[in-house]
From TrEMBL:
<keyword id="KW-0479">Metal-binding</keyword>
<dbReference type="GO" id="GO:0016491">
    <property type="term" value="F:oxidoreductase activity"/>
</dbReference>
<dbReference type="InterPro" id="IPR005123">
    <property type="entry name" value="Oxoglu/Fe-dep_dioxygenase_dom"/>
</dbReference>
<keyword id="KW-0408">Iron</keyword>
<keyword id="KW-0560">Oxidoreductase</keyword>
<protein>
    <recommendedName>
        <fullName>Fe2OG dioxygenase domain-containing protein</fullName>
    </recommendedName>
</protein>
<dbReference type="InterPro" id="IPR044861">
    <property type="entry name" value="IPNS-like_FE2OG_OXY"/>
</dbReference>
<dbReference type="Pfam" id="PF03171">
    <property type="entry name" value="2OG-FeII_Oxy"/>
</dbReference>
<dbReference type="Pfam" id="PF14226">
    <property type="entry name" value="DIOX_N"/>
</dbReference>
<feature type="domain" description="Fe2OG dioxygenase">
    <location>
        <begin position="242"/>
        <end position="345"/>
    </location>
</feature>
<comment type="similarity">
    <text>Belongs to the iron/ascorbate-dependent oxidoreductase family.</text>
</comment>
<dbReference type="InterPro" id="IPR026992">
    <property type="entry name" value="DIOX_N"/>
</dbReference>
<dbReference type="InterPro" id="IPR050231">
    <property type="entry name" value="Iron_ascorbate_oxido_reductase"/>
</dbReference>
<dbReference type="InterPro" id="IPR027443">
    <property type="entry name" value="IPNS-like_sf"/>
</dbReference>
<dbReference type="GO" id="GO:0046872">
    <property type="term" value="F:metal ion binding"/>
</dbReference>
<dbReference type="GO" id="GO:0009685">
    <property type="term" value="P:gibberellin metabolic process"/>
</dbReference>
Length: 423
């Protein structure tokens, strides 16, 4: 049994590892879970319109309407986003890394988002990846459904998340797939996914995304060097932690919407992963961050990647760096694409802060642990099967782990011991 099994709420059932299904919320409807809306003719018709890019609807069905608190108006002020040049980290310039670290520290301690330049991403590759997403989402629905996402899985094609939720549906389509460095996996995972799932004709598109993911992984590891420097744990600390990880790539498509003020492309949430690298299509903006009670836009900046902190890294920093609470809005006339690369650790790697972030010369200054040990696999399973990611995902996950661990401990007691404990 793993050394941290008591944190993960797992029991051994013969040779089978079981994650206890203990949820912090028993009311599925409160999370927008429950039955899917396949039998809702009006919603299904709108999703068909989404998928085929057609339709002349003037109103959206109720499942797409978000509460006013989530769909509140956009601020007239753009978010003041620092621009961090990571070329120094890509090429070993120590003085440049220190300058970048100071900028990152300021951004991550407040709203958790910054822009990155100097990343070396080939503009032609970036364009090919964005155009590839646009081409994929314009395909006939039957072709896209070859990659249909299976229940509980993070990979595959999904339209409006109708396979998971029945309310607060996002006005978008997604295609998600995993990436692992081919030097570690021994194969080109992304290319293989496209050919095995969609067919041999999609091999060229798979090569584009394989190359794009390889480039994003190198940029993400360079950013982790800067973050390690900014937290005083050393440049290699977080880079080494994520070097052999299995990350996730997601292509997003936001169709034009007849009532953009009543819906969202993506609801308010923090990413469960550690770091997100977002490439926005320069023609249309949609990303917004909640700062001081206002949803402030993050406009596309030519040549720059948007980087935000996720929940996994908030746990790795013991809460010093905050997850970025963000959403995506849609446009009445224009469609939008974006590419999100989610940096994740290896599935079984235990997420805990480096000791240096917990210790202090003065015992009175020592920092208590804010979150229990966990693995990325369990956080991912939690968000896919038990909880809809929002602004409090990590806290809900910690509560869920505690309940699962307590249930596991109780189940492992002998009947007599359990009775003695009750008495």
């Amino acid at each position: 049994m793993p050394e941290n099994a008591h944190h993960l709420g797992m029991m051994e059932a013969g040779r089978r590892r079981v994650l206890l299904p203990v949820s912090p919320a028993d009311d599925d409807d409160a999370l927008g879970w429950g039955k899917t809306i396949d039998d809702d003719d009006d919603t299904a018709a709108v999703i068909d319109d989404l998928c085929w890019g057609g339709g002349q609807r003037q109103k959206i069905p109720d499942p797409f309407v978000w509460p006013h608190a989530h769909a509140q108006a956009t601020s007239e002020r753009d978010l003041d986003v620092p621009v961090v040049d990571v070329a120094a980290a890509m090429h070993g310039d120590h003085a440049g890394i220190r300058r970048a670290a100071a900028q990152v520290a300021a951004a991550c301690a407040s709203h958790g988002l910054f822009l990155v330049t100097g990343h070396g991403l080939d503009p032609a590759l970036a364009r090919a990846a964005l155009d590839g997403a646009a081409g994929f989402f314009r395909l006939p629905l039957a072709t896209k459904q070859r990659a249909r996402r299976a229940p509980g899985d993070v990979t595959g094609y999904a339209a409006a998340h109708r396979d998971r939720f029945k309310a607060n549906l996002p006005w978008k389509e997604t295609l998600s797939f995993r990436h692992r460095d081919h030097r570690i996996s021994g194969s080109r995972v992304v290319t293989d996914y496209f050919t095995s799932t969609l067919g041999a004709d999609f091999q060229p598109l798979g090569v584009v995304y394989q190359d794009y993911c390889e480039a994003m992984k190198e940029v993400a590891l360079a950013i982790m060097e800067v973050i390690g420097e900014s937290l005083g744990v050393g440049r290699s600390c977080y880079r080494d932690f994520f070097a052999d990880g299995c990350s996730i790539m997601r292509c997003n498509y936001y169709p034009a919407c007849p009532e953009p003020e009543r819906t969202l492309g993506t609801g308010p949430h923090c990413d469960p992963s550690a770091l997100t690298l977002l490439l926005q299509d320069g023609a249309v903006d949609g990303l917004q961050v909640l700062v001081d009670g206002e949803w402030q836009p993050v406009r596309p900046t030519p040549g720059a990647l948007v980087v935000n902190i996720g929940d996994t890294f908030m746990a790795l920093s013991n809460g010093r760096y905050r997850s970025c609470l963000h959403r995506a809005v849609v446009d009445r006339e224009r469609e939008r694409w974006s590419l999100a690369f989610f940096l994740c650790p290896r599935d079984d790697r235990v997420v805990r802060p480096p000791p240096r972030l917990l210790l202090a010369d003065d015992p009175a200054d020592q920092q208590p642990r804010r979150y229990p040990d966990f693995t990325w696999a369990d956080l991912q399973r939690f968000t896919q099967r038990h909880y809809r990611a929002d602004a409090r995902t990590l806290d809900a996950f910690a509560t869920w782990l505690g309940a699962a661990a307590a249930t596991s401990a109780s189940a492992s007691q002998s009947p007599d011991k359990a009775q003695d404990t009750a008495v």
